[in-house]
Queue: 2 jobs
Job 1
Amino acid sequence: MQNAKPKPMDNDLHDLFVDQLRDILWAENHLVKALPKMAQAAHSAPLRKAFSDHLVETENHVVRLKDIFASLGLSARAKKCEAMEGLLKEAEELQEEYAGTAALDAALITAAQKVEHYEIATYGTLRAFARCMDHSKAVELLTLTLDEEAHADEALTKIAESKVNVAAAA
Ligand code: ZN
Ligand code: FE
Ligand code: FE
């Protein structure tokens, strides 16, 4: 039976894995809508570029998640992510509160890095689950996305520390 098609997984960790895939699919779908607004609001050109570059990556994160569902023989169904809804609500609040101030870009980066860290936590956990269950396609795709989330976070740190924080403090 070595080469037989893997039978569909049926255990509690797999349930949790699929549940969290659905959660992050909802989150990524909503980020695709939020990032253009954040790019539009940003003053600094590098920050606008960081947001629009990450929008392209985020659209691809959705595609990868759909590929992961397909690799598991499952339909790509999203489940509301309460955390991402809250993070994006806070992002909008910060954006309104600091509109027209020198700290607007710093506020946008604050919100965006909270989002990135939520994603990094989720994808890191998902990859650990996938490794544990030998879902090799999922491991491969989750690693690609995890690396892009980490890179996006680092890019925001660089923009904050090299430019935006100093401007906000002036
Ligand atoms: Zn993402
Ligand atoms: Fe969530
Ligand atoms: Fe992201």
Job 2
Amino acid sequence: IECVSLSPMMEAVPAPPESERVCVFGTGDMGRSLGLRLLQAGYGVVFGSRRPHSSSSLIPHGAQVLGHAAASQSAHLIFIAVQREHYDFLVPLANQLKGKVLVDLSNNLRKNQYPEANAEYLQSLVPGAEVVKGFNTLSAWSLQNGPSDANRQVYICGESVEAKQAVIAVAIKLGFSALDQGFLSVARELEDFPLQLFPQWRLPLRIAIGLSAAFFFYLLIRDIIYAYVTQSKDISFRIMVSLANKVCPIVSLIMLSLCYLPGVLASFLQLYRGTKYRRFPDWLDRWMLCRKQLGLLALGFAFLHVLYTLIIPIRYYVRFKALVLIINTPLSLSLSQIRENRTTQFDTTTAWRGDSYLSLGILGFGLYVLLGITSLPSVINTLSWREFSFIQSKLGHLTLLLCTAHTYLYGWNRFLSSSTYKWYTPPGYMLCLVLPSVVLLLKLLLITPCVDRTITRIRQGWERGADQRNPKDSQPLIP
Ligand code: NAP
């Protein structure tokens, strides 16, 4: 039984022509949100529902709700806002849906849930209709919040160009930019899109967690357990700030090096192969693709290091030490100085070292932040390719150099003191210097004029031995 239900507003307004009318099957969250946006954009909206009477109170004002068959007759374009499991209700409607454009909005709960994509399944149920996959990457919530707050891109795919154009026209009128992804075979990819869970962040996050855990336990043994075992001193309270403030810069510096190491390795690989026309190994490709995430995580750790450093003066331990020093030092110091007939000398070298250490750290962090800002898509869009590569490559390596120098200055002459190597192990900052030093040395080799000239030629398409391999290539095009 087809029951018609009009909202009070709709009764007074004449029905828009079919081209300006769209149908939405399903009055659930997605159907209602989409219907509201369509109404706001000026479309006439007819909902198709199993229970038009009870659904009429749910739908937005200005929309109409009918049974599925009647609703499908009112518009050429039909959005299917129903879960895929219930698609079989469309089979009896196959005749009415012939020639109509059906937009499949559905998503799944997990990847590969069904043997075929939902949109392909829909097409098999209603072979006479033109199925277009689209709008599934939006959420009902974002649709309701309006164009200012929502994701602005809509991905679509389908076999029929006309059907896709009809859907694109609606998407544009709703304030979205529509991206045609090709044929219906791409539907599975679009359906997997909302199920992605930070795919490019996984490897960098694993590296960050792995490095943090490894260095935390290493420093725990070297700093806290060593003091307990050898001097019976309980300094476990240092775990919260001192240890954290050692782990953060170590992880940050290693991750920044990991950000620049694949680029350097790729250059050496191209030099070795003498061509850029061969694919990099998969592992290197994957590594290069997550450099931005590695860099942003490195910046996060650097930021934590800055915060931990800034709170040092307000720590109880530090204030207590300072107080004890003020109370005890002048008397004991003056007595010992009088006894030994000496005065405290200002050590210019130590002052230079301290100031340089701090200054390089500040400059390095400043550039770090600049790198982070210029990796934002909105900022990248305002930069030319040359500006982007200048910042990310040249200033990036400079950042690595400054941060590495900052760490070397932290170590200073302690590298040579045997007391630094507790239980014959090097301190964490020494270990973390290995990778950045290697990256910087390799980069130095790459920018030497003769190597740089060769790598530039390779990147411009020159191939080593190409002339011998294919003599025709070297012949002039015009005799
Ligand atoms: P929902 O709230 O569960 O609503 C689905 C609607 O389908 C129901 O309100 C009902 O409408 C209809 N329906 C239920 N069982 C049916 C059956 N056996 N036969 C025919 N129709 C039936 O789901 P939803 O959240 O709106 O999602 C709808 C579709 O959009 C799903 O495929 C989902 O994957 C997709 N999607 C949802 C979102 C979101 O944010 N919610 C985002 C992207 C894509 P009537 O009672 O009026 O018949």
